[in-house]
Write a structure and sequence with these properties.
CATH architecture of the largest domain: 2-Layer Sandwich
Order of helices and strands: HHHEEHEEHHEEHE
Helix content: 55-70%
Oligomer: single chain
Shape: elongated
Radius of gyration: 24 Å
Largest sheet: 4 strands, mixed
Strand content: 15-25%
Number of domains: 2
Number of strands: 7
CATH topology of the largest domain: Alpha-Beta Plaits
CATH class of the largest domain: Alpha Beta
Distance between the termini: 39 Å
Structural class: alpha/beta
Length: 183
Amino acid sequence: MRGAVAIAVLAVLTACSKSDVDSTQNAVASAVPKLANVAGIAARIEARFVQIDPASALHVSIAVNGGDVRLGGKVRTEDIGKRFVAQANGVTGVTHVSSTITIDKSLPNAKDGIADYALEGKIRAKLVEQAGVNGLSIVVTARGGAVTLAGNVSSKDVADTLTATAKAVSGVKTVESKLVVRE
């Protein structure tokens, strides 16, 4: 990102007068601390959310504009949502918090999320072992043992093999294939 900013500044500076150059340099110099502050506020809020409920923290968006913070997304319980808003309000530099967070009791807890992630990894490894490079492009999602395979494959036989391979992995309860045959 710094490279892109530097190129943009250079392009502006080479076609401008001395006063334009000075004005641009001042604008860039004053914008950098503001951007750093916004990123810092968002990072501090996110760190607090992860301490409260890591699984819900993954599903919440944080938008910072000056000291105003907007929270959106989903959390597992109403209590977690209230705690997220309270924690965001407690971050230095935050002047106002608005929230459109909704409750989704089907979100996994942290333990389930880790188990799902581990299962996805086992399935990916088996798909690559079974189908080689064909297995690399497959998107695997798992939730409580329910697995979905998505992506493009070269034939119905490859799709069937990948689906059977996923079904054979320990911990898999069901497999939904959203594999698309592209020739």
